[in-house]
């Protein structure tokens, strides 16, 4: 996570009584939420915004088990409210020269319709049914998007992009 990111600081208060929205959420859960948001959005600013939005929703719901789902929904909502050019990956987010960096860059270059199910299913280990429920699509759509994402990743890694 970014060193300056303070998702648990006093400025992040919920609307119910001024308690920190993250009082019931561990730092590990916040870091995981930020991680999935970063992988889905491809840039730090949108990942921070989505994670903060998820924490605000969590503060209203007071259900610590829902942070992950709130984060994914916040990323999807963020994309709906932003111009489409924000969905383009930010170049330079991943350092070059390392296999993992190439893979991360290839994932970031995927269109959001393929990147989201790939990150949730193949990186985070969710089932196709759970991904479909979270993204609001059928299992067959998730499987199709996963197949296409994998094919695009194979081509990108083979071509050295």
UniProtKB/TrEMBL annotation:
GO biological process terms held by the UniProt record: DNA-templated transcription initiation
Keywords: DNA-binding, Sigma factor, Transcription, Transcription regulation
UniProt domain RNA polymerase sigma factor 70 region 4 type: residue ranges: 102-152
Keyword Ion transport: no
GO molecular function, one term: sigma factor activity
Record has DNA-binding as a keyword: yes
Family named by the database record: Belongs to the sigma-70 factor family. ECF subfamily.
PANTHER family tied to this protein: RNA POLYMERASE ECF-TYPE SIGMA FACTO, RNA POLYMERASE SIGMA FACTOR HI_1459-RELATED
Protein name, UniProt field: ECF RNA polymerase sigma factor SigE
Species this chain originates from: Urbifossiella limnaea
């Amino acid at each position: 996570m970014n060193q300056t990111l303070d998702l648990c600081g006093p400025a992040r208060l919920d609307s119910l009584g001024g308690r920190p929205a993250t009082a019931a959420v561990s730092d590990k859960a916040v870091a995981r939420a930020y991680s999935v948001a970063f992988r889905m959005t491809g840039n730090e600013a949108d990942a921070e915004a989505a994670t903060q939005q998820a924490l605000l929703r969590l503060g209203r719901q007071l259900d610590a088990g829902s942070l992950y789902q709130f984060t994914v929904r916040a990323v999807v909502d963020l994309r709906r409210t932003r111009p489409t050019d924000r969905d383009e990956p930010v170049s330079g987010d991943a350092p070059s020269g390392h296999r993992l960096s190439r893979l991360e860059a290839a994932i970031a270059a995927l269109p959001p319709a393929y990147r989201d199910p790939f990150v949730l299913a193949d990186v985070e280990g969710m089932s196709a049914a759970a991904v479909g429920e979270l993204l609001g699509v059928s299992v067959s759509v998730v499987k199709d998007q996963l197949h296409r994402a994998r094919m695009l990743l194979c081509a990108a890694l083979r071509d050295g992009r």
